[in-house]
Specification:
Oligomer: single chain
CATH topology of the largest domain: Lipocalin
Largest sheet: 9 strands, mixed, barrel
Number of domains: 3
Strand content: 25-35%
Helix content: 10-25%
Strand order of the largest sheet: 4-5-6-7-8-9-10-11-12
Order of helices and strands: EEEEHHEEEEEEEEHH
Shape: globular
Structural class: alpha+beta
Mean pLDDT: 86
Distance between the termini: 61 Å
Radius of gyration: 22 Å
Number of strands: 12
Length: 267
């Protein structure tokens, strides 16, 4: 079997040349929706924004609750968050925050690249032979994403996610696994939108899967702008504050303390 992959209006087409008996050849084509483009906030017919769902009343384990309370003790006195220190959001926040800033999808038959404007945060979803076995995946804030199609729905399974104590609505541990479903639709006014659904499991934080959903509208002739900085200083700051918290001391460390420590260590 020989494979060729081409793009046509609104679809990615994978064609397979299948050799049959008698040396005859048939061309089989499989079409999938093409998500390529820049996407932003979707407005429902009538003017309202699409409902985002709620992260309230999360089904937390005792350890999940403890970790959330500890994280809040580290950041709330300073009104801090990861983005304040130019750290990428990680998932699922990267996907849940779309709207304030746009997101771009670049789709090829063997890879879907997703770029969020903030910090140029990038995810790559791999297909088919591009998918690595789990033991070869490098853990990071966006995880490792493998995709497959169920009809016109793209299903993405993400593993190898590093600790997400600082996720805005769905914090998680490095044991989290996330499943997403992407699909194109049209509303009653004929406006196309991209629907996203997420389900995440994490035995450290949650007693059952947590979910979220979003809708995004295409931004015609849209583009994302440069917006950049690293996560290391932010993580060092959290570690310094955690040491103070566990020692029973006031949590007072600031980024200036991190920079002072880095300057001392570099001498």
């Amino acid at each position: 079997m020989l494979q060729d992959k081409v793009r046509t209006a609104g679809f990615i087409i994978t064609t397979s040349l299948v050799m049959l008996s008698g040396n005859s050849i048939v061309l089989a084509a499989e079409e999938h929706p093409d998500f390529t483009g820049v996407w932003t906030t979707y407005t429902e017919p009538g003017g309202g924004r699409a409902p985002r769902g709620s992260a309230a009343n999360l089904p937390l384990t005792p350890e999940g609750k403890r970790r959330i309370e500890e994280y809040r003790a580290l950041v709330e006195p300073f009104d801090d968050n990861a983005a304040t220190y130019c750290t990428t959001y990680g998932i699922p926040t990267m996907m849940e925050a779309v709207g304030s800033y746009p997101i771009e999808f670049i789709q090829k038959p063997d890879q879907l690249t997703i770029i969020y404007e903030v910090e140029g945060e990038t995810r790559r979803v791999y297909f088919g032979d591009r998918i690595l076995p789990e033991e070869r995946r490098f853990p990071n804030r966006q995880g490792y994403s493998a995709g497959h199609w169920e009809g016109d729905v793209l299903v993405v399974e993400t593993t190898s996610i590093t600790d997400g104590q600082d996720q805005r609505t769905h914090p998680h541990s490095d044991q989290a696994r996330m499943t997403e479903r992407f699909s194109l639709h049209k509303d009653e006014a004929g406006v196309e939108y991209l629907a996203w659904e997420m389900s995440m499991t994490d035995p450290v934080y949650y007693t059952e899967p947590v979910t979220a959903s979003r809708k995004w509208a295409g931004l015609e002739n849209g583009a994302i702008l440069p917006y950049n900085c690293t996560e290391e200083p932010w993580m060092k700051l959290l570690d310094m504050r955690r040491e103070q918290l566990h020692a029973g001391e006031p949590v007072t460390a600031t980024m200036a303390d991190v920079y002072a420590t880095e300057m001392y260590e570099s001498k």
